[in-house]
Design a protein that fits this description.
By secondary structure, the protein is mainly alpha-helical. The protein has one domain: ADP-ribosylation/Crystallin J1 (ADP-ribosylglycohydrolase fold).
Length: 311
């Protein structure tokens, strides 16, 4: 690895938050020049629930040094109560209410959503970067990512999608950004790591689209950009793979083709930042990111826990 682990952690968490904030702006400024002008004009780049929940996951991991579903759920709930206006979807607040009123675990409440099938939205994947960072070389990353997802997203596809996104972040941490990047082994790893048919089929399609050198617009249509994890996370990974040397190009690819722009940006930014490190993230964007001191502090706490061998 050609840079310190702290730089990779900082890059991923700051990159994810910026992807979220700039992706949210792209709903209002769907043309790239207008978006760039807005980003340059604004004094602060404000994030959504995507980053609020990533902060919650990082906080829980940093406090305990390990994953604990109940503690994580309580951290999510407290943060939601402090800032309910962040743009949360209906799932997490419903889970929080069920846990409180029915005295059940977060995992059980999440399982009861959608008639007992659980959610396969992209909400677990959008926030998973801190876990991918802390456990980037752990053989248990799949089960840990699923446990993290299961606090709000109990469907196997929702868990699998979060795990694959965590794996992508973990691999980006381990790759040296100044060496030649080889997308094919990366995608082959994604295919092998995934476990549900829905996610694996999309990883195989991603592999095919990269081989065919299709345009981002075509890839976005085929891979999907909706709020379900199988129809968003793959395009975020595509955006990174096709633009691995540039954080800006990766982010613009992820958010400028419509769909769930803020979450696509958060997922793509998390991988790109983990690969390029904090120095690869534009400083003029970093300086405007809301709550950046807290985000950077949590990133460094996770890096130090990992370096010290604590899990």
């Amino acid at each position: 690895m050609n840079m310190g682990i702290e730089a990779k952690h900082l890059g991923s968490m700051v990159g994810s938050a910026l992807g979220d904030a700039i992706g949210e702006l792209a709903f209002r400024y769907p043309e790239q020049n207008a978006l760039s002008a807005a980003v340059a004009r604004l004094e602060e780049l404000r994030y959504t629930d995507d980053t609020a929940m990533a902060i919650g996951l990082a906080t829980s991991l940093a406090q305990l040094g390990k994953l604990d579903g109940q503690h994580l759920g309580e951290t999510f709930r407290r943060n939601f109560q402090l800032e309910p206006w962040r743009g949360y979807g209906p799932g997490p607040p419903t889970v929080f209410a069920m846990v409180r009123s029915q005295k059940i675990s977060y995992a059980e409440a999440a399982q009861r959503l959608f008639g007992g099938t659980g959610s396969f939205g992209n909400g677990a994947a959008m926030r998973i970067a801190p876990l991918g960072l802390l456990y980037h070389d752990s053989p248990d990353i799949y089960s840990l990512a699923c446990a993290s997802a299961g606090v709000t997203h109990a469907h196997p596809v929702g868990k699998d999608g979060a795990a694959v996104q965590a794996w992508a972040v973990a691999q980006a941490v381990k790759l040296a950004s100044k060496k030649e990047f080889l997308p094919k082994p990366f995608v082959a790893g994604l295919v092998e790591f995934s476990r549900t048919r829905e996610i694996r089929d999309k990883m195989k399609l991603l592999e095919k689209l990269l081989d065919g050198n299709v345009s981002p617009a075509v890839a976005a249509t085929k891979l999907g950009q909706s709020v379900t994890v199988q129809d968003s996370m793959p395009f975020a990974i595509y955006s990174f793979l096709c633009n691995h040397s540039s954080f800006e190009d990766c982010l613009h690819c992820a958010i400028m083709h419509g769909g769930d722009r803020d979450t696509l940006g958060a997922m793509a930014g998390a991988i790109s930042g983990a690969y390029l490190g904090i120095d690869g993230v534009p400083p003029e964007w970093r300086s405007k990111l809301e709550n950046i001191t807290t985000i950077e502090k949590l990133a460094l706490e996770l890096a130090r826990k990992r370096v010290s061998g604590k899990e």
